[in-house]
Amino acid sequence: MAVLPIIEIPDPRLRKVSEPVGAFDTELKRLIADMFETMYDAPGIGLAAIQVGVPKRLLVIDLQEEGEGVRNPRVYVNPLFSEPSDEMSVYNEGCLSIPEQYAEVSRPASIRLRWQDADGAEHDERVDGLLATCLQHENDHLEGIVFTDHLSRMKRDMVLKKLEKQRKLNKAA
Ligand code: GNR
Ligand code: NI
Prior knowledge:
By secondary structure, the chain is α+β, with helices and mostly antiparallel strands. It has a single domain, classed as Alpha-Beta Complex (Peptide Deformylase), CATH 3.90.45. The chain has three helices and seven strands. Strand 4 and strand 5 form a beta hairpin. The chain is globular. The mean pLDDT is 96. Bound molecules: ligand GNR and nickel (II) ion (NI). Nickel (II) ion (NI) binds next to helix 2.
């Protein structure tokens, strides 16, 4: 297993549309294991394959609910969203590819999700709460979208300016 480098904006790879996973082989299982190790190391609650430079429709999530440190790893291969609720939910989102920046994003509070697991078996569930928010954030990555794309021009410019300022400070340190 390995901690992989996480790519950050404005890396153009983060704008690519990821391709469906076709083979449920040992290479896929190794990538999933490396993605978990990378996400836990960061630490983050979700990671899309493109964030480690692999343009495949694959996400890992672990909400580590209640902050009790109990791991609950979830893998979503070829996720498909439908039936978003009219009800919206606002969450202060962050992204490992936009480090240390946060902003409130409004998304459907619940969605229907179909996906495959690491062995290719199919699943179909309705999800809500933080899991629904996180899944939509990750699914955006598969389409080349990041959370700042959902903000007003003014808020987006503010976040991107703060990111540049932070990067300069980090460089000077
Ligand atoms: O670690 C992460 N935290 C987070 C918080 C609120 C909404 C979404 C997320 S996902 C993010 C990790 C990440 O960048 N995934 O793509
Ligand atoms: Ni992200």
